[in-house]
Design brief:
homodimer, about 475 residues, alpha+beta, Nucleoside Triphosphate Pyrophosphohydrolase, 7-stranded mixed beta sheet, 25 strands, globular, lyase activity (chains A, B), EvaA-like (chains A, B), EvaA-like_sf (chains A, B)
């Protein structure tokens, strides 16, 4: 197209390669990966963070509604904890009640990127969240609810927010509403954005520039890269990586998986997914939390007498670097370490991931693609073998030689307390992961996942986290 | 890729061209377009269809629930008519109550295609629906709710259904869940499918083979191609059409719009759409229909004293060619002829369509892309100019020389009685449709729309109908 036309190519053909270049780059122009843990520790020590469990009665401006028993903030903003009545037509549990977080407003999770020394770098933040086991983790440039950025809590302004709210301040590379945990949130979604700037930006002290490859390396460390960063990174439309430069055959197969053919063409994948959405039926009705069957409200928690799943608790928070320095809030505290695993298989040299169509009660559209295995094993201890989550025992008993990736990561620390999972990528014997998998499972390439995450409600937050980890394994591939 | 690999290319690169070939073909191998109206009339006359309005008290197996006042079938299947309480933050109407159809189950709208004489033909059905003004219209091969095809009404089997339910009976060309009217349905979606077969199929007498181009020609006729056919046709991934063979410059610009560049790259379109979804807030709570404010239940209808919007009525139906030959059911009857219009503009020779991000109360995801104008003008008569729908007066007063397409089409005749709209494509003076449109509007190409309809909840049913009409204008372009 000539210079004088108003028209643009529909896609930026250079972008996937530029992002791939950042992914393979493990030497940052600003900070080395080796120096990063020290930098994060210095931030942790420089601030006096403190999180204490408190009784619900000590929550400030949060209270149980006298009629419904729902837990809400007296501004009507932030979120509420309500009841949900769920019925499904499949699985060992066909009907249950549970508390759920209702957060109607859409927040922004945004990463600002900038080319430094010819390589795209991400502006990442050391951010405290009360629910994280180690409090401070690496988060996106901006991580803000609408209540945050419209200043309901009258705190400090959100830094760099203007790049995400004002079209034209930068070039948008990705911008998609993505769901979050359907087991704990009712129809929650956040805007996942990546915006490239050319402006000179002097990072505030809590921020640092890292390449995608450096963040990929950090994803191997436990509890360093937070969930919000992982989900945004998964949405980057990263292009081809040269498999000939991979350090081992698995990584070469992973590199090929970004842009090769697939066991199933895209239209078959979409058709299978559509059939799963039409087939799996979940009815979720919001109900008052007062008198919720199987749940008991105590002074410090709302929990089940059998101590399964999770409980609702309250904390008080003191923080030096957040918009307001002291607050109280409810959190959901899952009980037990989760397992979040991709089973993979090389098919004609191209890595494929076994995705599961998961119906979660809080999803907007009932079904999304999740990891092969996603559960807290302890919640399923008393089930007969045929009702246990498919492939769970395979993951729990996996030979270490089949583990290609393993790290413990936390879920959203602003809503969940110590919600940690072991994120794993495994490559079992081919006998154990057949080409024709059980109903509800489907083999896809990493390239196919990358296409799907451009759109809402296809890939759930746990699978996006694992996709970020998979991508991160390509760091240093040259 | 070699013959021995398990891998497939992610996309079938020949398919878009084959569909484009069917679109430009106006000579069918089986029936000429000229003969079609006579064929449809003969079917109309051969059957004794009859639809009569009845009081709610004469509905068979349908009744108002004694507590909620909701209207439901005693099988618990099909659909219910319930109440909805809607609040929004924008527009002249910020809060209202209305009846709404709740139909949780996902149906199938499927078109079977087959290459005949080297050109893809669609197997279309002459189907009676009680709400259509002329009862019999051209419909997809299969148009069935789950209650239909699981035989809740104990009627005859749905012909050709097996091609859509059994993977492998044909090659899936498109398969996507699409929303339907958000003003009248609560979170309704249907599976829109196109499946290609190689089997020899002897069409039953109510079915005929037509090219996409023939159906395109029929879309110029009032009330011939039903809504279900239009929405499925819109999902066909049709490829490039040669603009040099177009019969006029508008059609040439339309042909270019299928695969040229665009005013906005795709990522800008997605980013604008994401921002609109995050910005526009609609809260819709299901409430009992009993005592619904502003609505009165009489013996024959539920309506508003001001006679606006729609009413709920009941009919008895006698039909010779449906799965069961006699039944009663409720219908929603909109009041007044709607206007459904695309405003278009050639930008550097490429046709662009002005889409509106519309929040409709019944949408699953709050906002979808709709036509530039979509309303029943009479519902807005008493509004001050600033509150009238944008561009409505431009459409109503359009110079006939700017009208590129015009036909009256009906909405789903199985749920709506005489729900008809004037579907229009206009090309006003460029002054009236600026490149930088008002908030909530965005210029897109037909190629961009075609990419979006591969995925759920982007393009609403009225815009999909108009997209089918636009595509149909390319019929005969060679």
């Amino acid at each position: 197209m000539s210079q004088n036309t108003l028209l643009h190519p529909r896609a930026d053909l250079e972008l996937p390669g530029r992002l791939a270049g950042s992914l393979t780059a493990t030497r940052g122009a600003v900070m080395s990966t080796e120096d990063f843990p020290g930098w994060l520790d210095r931030h942790r020590q420089a601030h006096s963070f403190r999180v204490d469990r408190i009784p619900f009665g000590e929550l400030d401006r949060w209270s149980f509604h006298p009629d419904t028993g729902n837990l809400l903030h007296d501004s009507g903003r932030f979120f509420t904890v309500e009841g949900l009545h769920v019925t499904t037509e499949a699985g060992p549990h066909r009907e249950w009640y549970q508390p759920i977080i209702k957060q109607a407003e859409v927040g922004i999770l945004g990463i600002l990127v900038k080319e430094i020394g010819g390589v795209l770098h991400c502006l990442m933040q050391a951010k405290m969240e009360p629910g994280n086991p180690n409090l401070l983790q690496l988060s996106p440039t901006v991580q803000a609810t609408r209540s945050n950025y419209t200043r309901v809590h009258e705190g400090a302004a959100v830094r760099y927010l203007e790049y995400f709210l004002q079209p034209g301040r930068g070039k948008v590379l990705a911008d998609v509403l993505q769901s979050e945990h359907g087991a704990w949130f009712h129809r929650k979604s956040n805007r996942n954005m990546i915006v490239e700037v050319e402006d000179d930006i002097a990072p505030h002290g809590d921020f640092c520039w890292l390449t995608l490859g450096q963040i990929g390396e950090l994803l191997h460390l436990d509890n360093v890269v937070n969930m919000d960063a992982r989900t945004v990174l998964a949405c980057a439309p990263i292009g081809a990586v040269d498999p000939d430069r991979a350090r081992d055959p698995f990584v070469a197969a992973l590199a090929r998986s970004r842009n090769a053919g697939a066991l199933h063409p895209d239209v078959e994948l979409l058709s299978w997914f559509t059939a799963e959405r039409a087939r799996q039926s979940v009815r979720a009705e919001r109900v008052p939390m007062a008198g919720l069957p199987s749940w008991v409200r105590g002074t410090h928690s709302i929990d089940r007498p059998d101590s399964r799943f999770f409980r609702v608790v309250a904390v008080s928070v003191q923080a030096g670097s957040r918009e307001v320095s002291r607050w109280t809030q409810p959190l959901i505290e899952p009980l037990g370490l989760g397992i979040t695993a991709f089973l993979t298989r090389r098919i004609d040299g191209v890595l494929h991931v076994l995705m599961r169509a998961r119906a979660e009660a809080g999803f907007q559209d009932a079904v999304e693609l999740g990891p092969t295995v996603q559960c807290v094993p302890g919640n399923h201890d008393d089930l007969p073998p045929e009702d246990r989550p498919a492939f769970l025992d395979l993951v729990l008993s996996a030979d270490p030689s089949t583990v290609r990736f393993e790290a413990v990561h936390s879920e959203e620390g602003g809503r969940f307390l110590n919600a940690v999972s072991r994120y794993m990528v495994l490559e079992p014997d081919e006998d154990e992961v057949p080409l024709d998998p059980p109903p509800g499972f489907f083999w896809v390439t990493v390239g196919q996942l990358t296409s799907l995450v451009c759109h809402s409600n296809y890939v759930n937050v746990q699978a996006r986290s694992l996709l970020a980890c998979l991508n991160g394994m390509l760091a240093g591939t040259r």
